[in-house]
Specification:
The complex is a heterotrimer of chains A (179), B (123) and C (343). With 179 residues, chain A is an all-alpha fold. Chain A has helices at 16-37, 49-61, 63-81, 87-106, 114-137, 147-178. The chains are: A mainly alpha (179), B alpha+beta (123), C alpha+beta (343). The B-C interface holds B 14, 17, 21, 24-25, 28-29, 40, 42-43, 82-84, 86, 90-92, 95, 97-99, 101, 103-104, 106, 108, 114-115, 117-123 and C 4, 8, 11-12, 15-16, 18-20, 23, 27-29, 32-34, 36, 38, 127, 195, 197, 200-202, 204, 208, 213-218, 220, 223-225, 228, 237-239, 241, 243, 273.
């Protein structure tokens, strides 16, 4: 992250917060692109690794950073993929908004770590996408036949992602402790 | 925060709730997967066929016996004593709300699904 | 904890959105076909009361309007060939007047004075008695006599025919007219959201709790549904097709929609679907456009005042009016439809 050129030269003051957001968002975008490029065995079901970055941002740096990272990921990712303002973009956006809303509501609850936040966020992501898909694109009750399968995938990937965030945070803390 | 298997006590609560919601989702929507065919004769329901269970059903009507066949989640009129044979030509039915009747023999088959695709069929 | 509950109740709320809507469906045989009623938001008792009323209406109308069985219209048909004045049942008057308007608008292609031709072809019996098509000479004689509703004079509650070959058969629009009467009756009973579907021809009023009723139009030649159309408010969807009643003789197929100009089954089209407010209009127009054929139907549609039409040609081609293009959603791949603006 240090290798990013110092934008102060352009006359804009860049805080360390900005830099953190930029770094994490860049990481999330790269993962987003990689996931878009990888074929999925089940159409529409993806592990949502980019959301791991968002959750990490939330737990490490707070809600504000997580919101930025989550929304930038969708926006920049779609610009790079050329899907900006396409149906896929709105599906992506509504999923991100729904999961960020759940994270915003739940992150202050005591006693929750990565999985306790990632699982509801992932399920909200799926619900947000389904609702948008239903209202805007496929107003057909048959769509909801697919919902349980998607929610199940969300639960599993959310759990895995949440555990991964826990380990990342633990390591980070351990490293800081050593330093 | 103490964790067991990487999960805090709060995580486990949330996870349990999520599993419950998931079970409810499967229960609420899973029932729709296997469709049901409603067989009526002169307006009276004579059978409900589970489309996932291959079978044959013979229905008696004023003209004779109408034979229905269920296979691979679909149902059709296999044979009919009527002259027009429109019901037999209609072929397989599988979509919710789909409907075929043999008026001469008074036998009607309708695919019932909880979320029907159409409210009515025009022909 | 309160937030958690909030989130979970939100999840629950989203899931319960998919619980089945309160649509009830009731089916019975009447009018020589299967009648299906759908009600939205009507409790069980009100729904069965409405169903009983509709069933009674349909059965009464069937006997009152049957052209070939003893009954009000059957008796009229016995008396018409005598060409003298006679008193006809008052209940037939509105039917006759509306039929005459529609027949005039269609330029005679919808012709309710066609009963004798129907009998020549044997379509008055259900099922039709096996046998060849009629003697071409007999058909030609009927065409030369050209019976029409213009031959029928009405004077108050008396009528007479100036043409001995007039025999009334409202088959081409009785279903639509009957569905209209039943809808009227249901409204009087306080039913606001319903579909009355008489053997595939239907009128829908209100909506399904704000969502439109979804009607699938069956593919006339293949299995399944060709297109769907969302209807709400008050609309009728009627289809006339060559597959409804037909017989085969020596390898040729003869269907029941007869062209009064030739005396033979209409040619060129497989089916015509009309969407209009009034069921009687949609029904009569679907028949008249079938008779008009693949080139001339737009003029007849304009003359009858229907704007939403889909016709399917014998070759499988599809023609649509511009107003219909906006209404249909295809449910299977179709050849590029030809859009026919009305003149």
């Amino acid at each position: 992250m240090r290798s990013i050129s110092e934008p102060e030269a352009a006359g804009v003051a860049v805080s360390s917060l900005d830099r953190r957001i930029a770094g994490l968002a860049a990481l999330a975008v790269v993962i987003h692109l990689a996931e878009a490029a990888l074929p999925s065995p089940l159409p529409g079901i993806k592990p949502g690794l980019a959301n791991v970055v968002v959750l990490y941002a939330l737990l490490r740096h707070g809600l504000q950073v997580a919101l930025w990272v989550g929304l930038l990921r969708v926006l920049v990712g779609s610009l790079l993929l050329g899907t900006f303002l396409s149906p896929g973009f709105f599906l992506s956006l509504s999923g991100a908004v729904a999961s960020l809303a759940v994270l915003a509501l739940m992150h202050r609850l005591p006693g929750l770590s990565g999985p306790g936040l990632a699982v509801p966020a992932a399920m909200a992501h799926v619900m947000g996408q389904f609702l948008t898909a239903y209202v805007w694109f496929i107003p057909h009750a048959g769509l909801f036949h697919l919902l349980p399968a998607f929610l199940t995938a969300a639960l599993l990937f959310g759990l895995a992602g949440g555990l991964a965030v826990n380990r990342l945070l633990d390591r980070g803390l351990a490293r800081e402790g050593r330093a | 925060m103490t964790r067991r298997y990487g999960l805090t006590r709060g995580d486990r609560w949330v996870l349990s709730a999520a599993l419950l919601a998931l079970a409810a989702a499967w229960a609420a929507l899973g029932g729709d997967e296997g469709g049901m065919a409603l067989v009526t004769q002169e307006g009276r329901v004579v059978a409900r066929l589970d489309l996932e269970r291959p079978t044959r059903l013979t229905v008696d009507g004023p003209l004779g016996q109408t034979v229905l066949e269920v296979a691979e989640g679909r149902v059709r009129f296999l044979s009919s004593p009527c002259r027009g044979q429109l019901c037999v030509h209609a072929g397989w039915l599988s979509q919710g709300g789909a409907f075929v009747a043999c008026l001469p023999n008074g036998v009607a088959v309708r695919i019932a699904a909880r979320s029907e695709r159409y409210d009515a069929i025009n022909f | 904890m309160i937030r958690l509950l909030l989130v979970l109740s939100l999840l629950g709320g989203l899931l319960s959105c998919q619980s089945p809507p309160s649509v009830s469906r009731h089916e019975f045989m009447a009018f020589g076909t299967l009648v299906s009623l759908s009600f939205y938001g009507l409790d069980g008792e009100a729904a069965s009361r409405a169903t009983a009323a509709a069933m009674e209406d349909f059965r009464y109308l069937h006997s009152a309007w049957h052209p070939y069985e003893p009954g009000p219209l059957g008796r009229v048909n016995e008396l018409l060939p005598l060409q003298g004045w006679f008193t006809y049942p008052p209940s037939l008057r509105p039917l006759l007047l509306r039929a005459r308007e529609l027949s005039r608008a269609s330029g005679g292609l919808f012709n309710p004075a066609i009963g004798e031709l129907v009998m020549l072809w044997g379509f008055h019996e259900d099922p039709r008695r096996e046998g060849p098509p009629p003697d071409p000479k007999a058909v030609a004689e009927w065409v030369a006599a050209a019976p029409s509703l213009e031959d029928v004079e009405l004077r108050g509650l008396e009528m007479r025919s100036r043409n001995p070959r007039v025999r009334l058969d409202f088959g081409a629009f009785a279903k639509g007219y009957g569905v209209d009467r039943v809808i009227e009756h249901l409204r009087e009973l306080g039913v606001e959201n319903a579909i009355v579907n008489a053997g595939g021809d239907l009128r829908a009023i209100g909506s399904k709790g704000g969502a439109p009723w979804v009607v699938g139009i069956r593919d006339p030649r293949g299995p399944g549904v060709l297109a769907r159309i969302a209807v709400s408010g008050d609309e009728s969807v009627f289809t006339s097709g060559d597959y409804e009643r037909f017989f085969e003789y020596e390898g040729r197929r003869y269907h029941h929609i007869l062209d009064p100009r030739s005396g033979y089954p209409a040619r060129g089209l497989v089916s015509v679907t009309v969407v209009a407010g009034e069921g009687a209009l949609a029904d009569a127009a679907a028949t008249a456009l079938m008779v008009a054929g693949p080139e001339d139907w737009p003029q007849v549609a304009r003359a009858m005042g229907v704007e939403q039409v889909m016709v399917i040609e014998e070759g499988g081609g599809i023609q649509l009016t511009p107003a219909m293009v906006r209404r249909l959603q295809w449910e299977k791949p179709v050849p590029e439809p030809r859009v026919r603006p009305l003149p």
